[in-house]
Specification:
Blueprint (H helix, E strand, L loop, with lengths): L1 H12 L3 H4 L7 E3 L5 E3 L7 E7 L8 H12 L4 E7 L10 H12 L18 H9 L12 E4 L5 E5 L8 H12 L3
Parallel strand pairs: 3-4
Antiparallel strand pairs: 1-2, 3-5, 5-6
């Protein structure tokens, strides 16, 4: 029985040591405008990384993401949206996504270009995430969220169903922003 438990635990918490040694600040990603976003510039910031889509039932979460960005950006919170069509719910190009987000939801937080987030062709950030969270922490749908600390390490993840303005998420964001390590 003990061996079965160990195998199950290993499946949930296995990671590759090469990827696990990295932190968010070791990566860069293309912005929705085509410029590089060097994530090293987010050192000493708290990052909420969210895979997004424009034609999803959770798309109205853009409003909540913008609300928490506006509330906490001066205290060091970065919301980083990563559009993806991995679930077949994203517009066809970055220009349309950018325009949709800005006009419909007033998005001002940083947005990446459309990226793969699952499988062998996933962006290196999402491969890093895959190696650092359990199987149940992998994005299963749009608007899966990762809270990443000032040190560039993953603090927690939140499912698509979790509102960005929920008490639980706000409490964890505030803890990451204001508590000394």
């Amino acid at each position: 029985m003990r061996y079965i438990l160990l195998i199950i635990l290993a499946m949930f918490f296995s990671s590759s040591s090469e990827s696990s040694d990295k932190i968010l600040h070791d990566f860069s990603i293309e912005s929705i405008s085509g410029d590089a976003i060097n994530l090293a510039k987010y050192k000493d910031k708290v990052v909420l990384l969210v895979n997004t889509a424009s034609k999803c039932g959770f798309t109205p979460q853009y409003s909540g993401l913008q609300k928490i960005y506006d509330r906490y950006k001066d205290d060091g919170l970065i919301v980083l949206g990563v559009p993806t069509n991995d679930f077949n719910q994203e517009l066809s190009n970055d220009k349309d996504v950018k325009q949709f987000c800005e006009i419909r939801y007033g998005v001002k937080f940083p947005m990446a270009s459309i990226q793969k987030i699952k499988g062998d062709n996933a962006h290196p950030i999402y491969k890093w995430i895959q190696s650092n969270v359990s199987v149940i922490g992998q994005p299963r749908w749009n608007f899966h969220k990762y809270l990443i600390g000032k040190d560039g390490k993953i603090i927690n993840w939140f499912s698509s169903m979790t509102s960005p303005t929920s008490d639980g998420m706000i409490n964890q964001i505030e803890t990451a922003l204001y508590d000394e390590e």
